[in-house]
């Protein structure tokens, strides 16, 4: 599995050109892209700045020698590189296993292009994984009821190595919501977004035109886009 992830990440790093400002996603696959970018900075004098989507991404980027900046400094990014949990044939995504979906969506929205790095197990005919929803703790019960009315059975994500719920980098909770097979991701995303107290959900259905998916294979990778 890590060979596939490495191949996808390394290939994504080749999409980055000198002078670019790069959104840096969260997760094990995108870290390979960061590792490669760090190498290009050190060996090829690549000059870039990264906008990290989480504390974890920021820590990794620093370790690899990638200079960091912010979305305030650069509200428009040249490119974002990120992972995903599922990708459907229309290039709609489910993200958020790492609970970084809110900043990841801000960065994806701000980027001219989004390069999504996955292994082949993430490519599905229809999205059916639980959708993470970032929720204001104040409203968690009310939001939970509204999500249940949409057909989910929301589960408050529990932390590992900490008692109680996961608290995101933004101070919020995560509800993991299984909807079964999602027939219309855009419609569901809009319905979830309309619930007061919901910050974001892990459905990414509005960026299909600017997304390129790099699917890592045992040897090499394949590239999927709608254009
Ligand atoms: O959305 C994410 C974090 O919130 C990740 O990008 C997604 O979960 C993929 O992670 P990995 O590359 O480790 O499989």
From TrEMBL:
The active site is at 104 (proton acceptor). It comes from the Archaea. InterPro entries: NagB/RpiA_transferase-like, Ribose5P_isomerase_typA_subgr, Ribose5P_isomerase_type_A. Substrate binds at residues 26-29, 82-85, 95-98, 122. It is an enzyme of class 5 (isomerase). The keyword Protein transport does not apply. GO terms for molecular function: ribose-5-phosphate isomerase activity. Its EC number is 5.3.1.6. Keywords: Isomerase. Pathway: Carbohydrate degradation; pentose phosphate pathway; D-ribose 5-phosphate from D-ribulose 5-phosphate (non-oxidative stage): step 1/1. Homotetramer. Homodimer. Belongs to the ribose 5-phosphate isomerase family. This is Ribose-5-phosphate isomerase A. It comes from Methanoculleus submarinus. The gene is rpiA.
């Amino acid at each position: 599995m890590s060979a596939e992830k490495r191949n996808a990440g390394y290939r994504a790093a080749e999409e980055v050109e000198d002078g670019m400002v790069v959104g840096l996603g969260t997760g094990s696959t995108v870290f390979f892209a960061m590792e490669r970018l760090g190498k290009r900075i050190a060996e090829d004098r690549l000059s870039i700045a990264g906008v990290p989507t989480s504390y974890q991404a920021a820590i990794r980027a620093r370790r690899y020698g990638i200079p960091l900046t912010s979305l305030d400094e650069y509200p428009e990014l040249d490119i974002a590189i990120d992972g995903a949990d599922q990708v459907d044939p229309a290039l709609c995504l489910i993200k958020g296993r790492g609970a970084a979906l809110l900043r990841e969506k801000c960065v994806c929205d701000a980027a001219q292009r989004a390069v999504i790095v996955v292994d082949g197990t993430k490519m599905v005919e229809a999205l059916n994984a639980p959708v993470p929803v970032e929720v204001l703790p104040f409203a968690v019960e009310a939001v939970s009821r509204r999500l249940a009315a949409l057909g989910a059975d929301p589960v408050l994500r529990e932390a590992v190595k900490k008692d109680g719920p996961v608290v995101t980098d933004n101070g919020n909770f995560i509800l993991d919501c299984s909807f079964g097979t999602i027939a219309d991701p855009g419609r569901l995303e809009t319905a979830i977004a309309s619930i007061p107290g919901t910050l974001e959900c892990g459905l990414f259905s509005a960026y299909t035109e600017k997304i390129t998916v790099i699917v890592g294979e045992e040897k090499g990778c394949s590239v999927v886009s709608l254009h």
